[in-house]
Amino acid sequence: MGTYILRRLLQMIPVIIGTTFIIYAMVFALPGDPSAGKCGDRACPPAVVKHIREQYNLDDPLPVAYVKYLGKLGKGDLGENSYGVPVMKDLSQRYQITAKLALMAIVFEAIFGVAAGVLAAIKKGSFLDSLVLVSTLLVISIPIFVIGALAQFYLGVKTGIFPVTITSRNPSMYQLLLPAIVLAALSMAYVTRLTRTNLAENLRADYVRTAKAKGLTQRRAIGLHALRNSMIPVITFMGYDFGALLGGAIVTERIFNIQGIGGYIFQSINHRDGFAVVGAVTALVIVYLVVNLIVDLLYGALDPRISHD
Amino acid sequence: MHIKTRAALVAGLSATALLAACGGGGQTGGDGGGGGKEANGGEIVVRGCQPQNPLIGGDTGESCGHDIVELFTSTLFKYDPATGEPKNDIAESVESDDNQTFTVKIKPGYKFQDGTEVKAKNFVDAWNYTAYGPNAQYLSYFMEPIVGYDDLVSEDPDGDGPQKAPEPKAKEMSGLKVVDDHTFTIQTKEPVSNLPVRLGYTAFAPQPDAFFANPEEFAKKPIGAGPYQVESYDQGRQAVLTKYADYAGDFGGNVDKITFRIYQDAEAAYNDLLAGNLDVLDEIPSSALVEKKYESDLPGRFEQKAYPAIQTVTFAPDKVSPDYANPKIRQAISMAIDRQKIIDDQFDGARQPADGWVAPGVEGYKAGACGDFCTYNPEKAKQLLDEAGGFKGKLTISYNADSAHKAWVTATCNSIRTGLGIDCVASPVTDFATFRDQIGAQKMKGMFRSGWIADYPHIENFLTPLFTKNGSSNDNKYNNPAFETALVDAGKAQGDASLKKYQEAEQMLAADMPAIPMWYYTSTIGWSENVENVKVNVSSGRPDLLAVSAKQ
Predict the structure, then answer these.
(1) B58, B118, B320, B449: least surrounded by Cβ within 10 Å?
(2) pLDDT-above-90 percentage for chain B
(3) B234 part of contact set with chain A, CB < 8 Å
(4) Is B45 helix (H, G, I), strand (E, B) or coil?
(5) Residue B243 in this model has a pLDDT that exceeds 50
(6) Does B452 touch chain A (CB under 8 A)?
């Protein structure tokens, strides 16, 4: 187990280097000088252009500039964004809030998604099952910005139950509740459907029938045997989803004005803010890798037949 | 004002693009806020956006930063929010016999927020700092007219790296001299009749001595001599300003505390406005502009007003696109555009068709400079085109696709196609940086959209940067000696004679048509039930925050 983890961690290094290079190349190889749009319809003063070119090593060939960047990265320096704030500082502030939001969303997803899925699977074909199927289909088919905007308008502006936007850098759980539900809505529907299908299938499997024949109660047969097996695809999905929530909450973060990582990446791409984009995405890649590792380790716990030794 | 200007033209204006027709429920009257009077003025929350640069007068051109800088600094003049006219602020007097040597006398008693007095040298030092190349200040070009500016910037010997540019020859402009604590002189390279108008811009704000020790550190909690002081500035989140008790000027604000809350999205801000969590919103999001939804959302709590900004369609330089070089072809294209119809269809009528290259609301604006050439007349357009020998191939109008320009550019093309019978294509360019890069490198062919918002409310600002040979934004590479001469003459003349000369110069553009005037912009603002006296500042199109008062 220990060597497995170590091997996986070592494997991350080339992946991180590879991804940062690709992102770096994509950001900086975009046509158009990053300084060109900075001063509106007027060309920037030469000194400003020079400053920007120096900051991003734009006068060097791309590989050289990248190695210079990597050298800084190795020292834990992600550079400065075009507002002159160290990217590291920006990210650490924003990751806190995004991580909190994503965690809350994942918890909703896990609790309500799995519960609804289990209920639907057990009562397959019943009214409850149909209700779950129809309501998840509904959620999946409505774009998240519509759900978000509606929730914000009716629960925030009209009734005032929830705050309309988040103004604090360190919001409370209550303030993040509505955005977290909105953010979780789509994935929750997927988790429900995944759980339902897998569980329904496993309930028909031989080993469940055997377990029941041995005299196990329905509850134990499902909880201990069928559900554990059924959770593998669900956990895989949620692991991937956590990474996606961290980076992809762009829409939700914009609607609720959350100063998180999603909006940061969006804004930085718009401003051609190279270091900020590369830094934020690198951090995301690391999160993805770590979450993937955790998911892989969880497989072993869920299904002892899967071993990492 | 300003790059808010252009940055806004890209982002903001396009968002206001769906605007509804003029009509605003704004209050009239009010005096722009006079003097810091009684305490207990309450507090307001205003929508802000992320300033691009440190909060230094000479480094902040876009509106996000400018809105804040404008409140905590004072300049020699202040533009009247109702008329755009410059009024004396720190300046006691600015005098000149020849428009080339100016003697500036400043009022005693103005204090920076660290308690030091505003002296002549604070202006001179600040301007030198802004102009000095290695400081890389965005607004350094504002100092360009001053004698000695060229010695403070150095050219990169091989243009574009890898060699470093040498140290500039001097650190101070020879054209600035401190006479005594309250007097200094400015000498300009050429006569500049409108220098006093320019001096109202925050690029010319004085800096306290404390600034020069460590400007970057200073910008985190900057101070100035303005009516408000920065209490805290949390990048990306909010800036809090409070009334400065020792403010000595005539342009004080009403409320005690102004919080700029930074939103990433106009929509979120609008919802906060509806819920009463936000008091002043400088821009109505497009969803609320559709069918004038904001009028029922904010009964009597919005105002719409034109401000000095223009949308144009510029022709690529003659050597890039020789097909367009014949002025008659250009005039024909201009006459084939049905501006009013495009405005009605695309913007719910919320634009003013342009009939010249200078927007209203600035000193020297005169209607009708473009004359018949900006009036829709397809027959005459066809006739002009025939006289020019027709046009082979198809016309193109390029625009940056990261902003909402597609609809109106397409509509304009349709209008030209119907009017002239030439195929016209709206051609998108991925983003603004790429767009400007191609224009700057003279790789952009055909026609392309362009916009301008006044840096300072004067006719000259619409002519010099855009249409003189060395103009900073002369995308057409327009070069007309007669036009240049007229501008020089205008710079020498005084008062109305000067404005008249500028107007004559503008008139000349009609003959060559380097850019087609499309329309003048309007801004729409909204406010909550907690505040009153919210108005649009006509010189900038921004809410006049000094006039706002909180309902008790």
Answers:
(1) B320
(2) 69
(3) yes
(4) strand
(5) yes
(6) yes
